[in-house]
Write a structure and sequence with these properties.
By secondary structure, this protein is mostly helical. The chain has two helices and three strands; from the N terminus they run αβββα.
Length: 94
Amino acid sequence: MNKEELEAIKARYEATSVAPWVPFIEGRDCESGSSFIMTGIPKGEDIWQSKRGEDIEIVSGAMNADIDFIAHARQDIPRLLEEIERLKKIIDGK
């Protein structure tokens, strides 16, 4: 993966709603009537705070594993990019 590809991935995640994203699966995590991803809720924060982002509503038929993956990707991608950058510095001797 070249530098331009990594920068494109970073730009895409930086353009998203504030992290963390938390999946709420109907019948597993909530009884709201639908599955959704809540954005911008730090652990321990009040979910009704006005600072949080917009919910991402999920259309019916989405697999729970897909919803979990999408929600966790918002936190996972930056961590993976940081690890790639750290390893590249080691490889390059910097």
